[in-house]
């Protein structure tokens, strides 16, 4: 009986030591969950309407961190707006502070503007020329477009293949004025707008400054293209 009691007390003592040892180390599942929640809130804030997938890479279970006696605090470390490889710093600011960097694979699928058919250089785009195709944003080309309205009315700077993603640099403002066109020249003088007829001496796109001949004064001036057949003289 004495041996049995001694054995029982010995087992309880060992178990007690194991429990104490276990309690002093931080469980890693709350660390991963903190990183997951932080990434979800961050990317849902950026893209509330898009499909979001986050896979947190679990920390090595051999890692020993002192158990945190305060709430874990996440913060930015390396986050790309387009997703892909991301890293969150999870911190303990308690009696035994530590930081752990948790990596994750983030996929954001969003509708990106693509050409619906072959488009030649210089084509002025309409809604029928464009289609939205859902792709992972980290695989979309730099300068991609999310709205058709960003492309409609623009001209292609180069030829495009069917289902090719459009980039901002693939487009250019349309040619609104051709050399020799009669144009309306507007100038704001002292709060009054003065209008005069003119002739374009070169082609012009929206926002460009081009040479104009003022037909009233027969002077050559430079004016900014603001609409089809209309220019403004900067004052």
UniProtKB/TrEMBL annotation:
UniProt subcellular location: Periplasm
Under SMART domains, the record lists: SAF
Q: Name one Pfam family in it.
A: ChapFlgA
Q: Which Gene3D superfamilies match?
A: 2.30.30.760, Antifreeze-like/N-acetylneuraminic acid synthase C-terminal domain
Q: Is Signal one of the keywords UniProt gives this record?
A: yes
Q: Which UniProt keywords apply?
A: Bacterial flagellum biogenesis, Cell projection, Cilium, Flagellum, Periplasm, Signal
Gene Ontology biological process terms from the UniProt entry? bacterial-type flagellum assembly
Where mainly found? Answer: periplasm
Return the InterPro entries for the record: Flagellar_FlgA, FlgA_N, SAF, SAF_FlgA
Question: What span is annotated as the signal peptide, if there is one?
Answer: 1-21
Taken from the UniProt entry, a GO cellular component term is: periplasmic space
**Record domain SAF: where:** 110-172
Question: Per its UniProt entry, which superkingdom is the organism in?
Answer: Bacteria
Q: Which family does it belong to?
A: Belongs to the FlgA family.
Function of this protein?
A: Involved in the assembly process of the P-ring formation. It may associate with FlgF on the rod constituting a structure essential for the P-ring assembly or may act as a modulator protein for the P-ring assembly.
Protein name, UniProt field: Flagella basal body P-ring formation protein FlgA
């Amino acid at each position: 009986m004495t041996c049995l009691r001694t054995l029982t007390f010995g087992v309880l003592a060992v178990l007690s030591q194991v429990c104490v040892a276990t309690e002093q180390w931080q469980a890693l599942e709350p660390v991963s969950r903190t990183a997951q929640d932080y990434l979800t809130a961050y990317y849902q804030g950026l893209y509330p309407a898009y499909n979001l997938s986050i896979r947190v890479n679990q920390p090595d279970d051999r890692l020993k961190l002192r158990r945190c006696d305060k709430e874990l605090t996440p913060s930015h470390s390396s986050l790309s707006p387009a997703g892909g490889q991301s890293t969150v710093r999870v911190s303990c600011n308690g009696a035994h502070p530590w930081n752990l960097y948790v990596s994750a694979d983030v996929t954001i699928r969003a509708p990106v503007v693509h050409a619906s058919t072959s488009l030649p250089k210089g084509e002025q785009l309409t809604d029928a020329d464009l289609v939205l195709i859902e792709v992972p944003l980290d695989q979309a080309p730099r300068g991609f477009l999310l709205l058709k309205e960003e492309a409609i009315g623009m001209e292609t700077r180069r030829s495009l293949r069917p289902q090719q993603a459009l980039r901002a640099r693939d487009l250019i403002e349309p040619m609104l004025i051709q050399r020799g066109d009669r144009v309306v020249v507007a100038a704001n003088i002292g709060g009054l707008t003065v209008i005069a007829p003119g002739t374009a001496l070169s082609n012009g796109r929206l926002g460009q400054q081009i040479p104009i001949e003022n037909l009233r004064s027969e002077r050559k001036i430079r004016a900014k293209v603001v609409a089809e057949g209309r220019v403004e003289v900067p004052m």
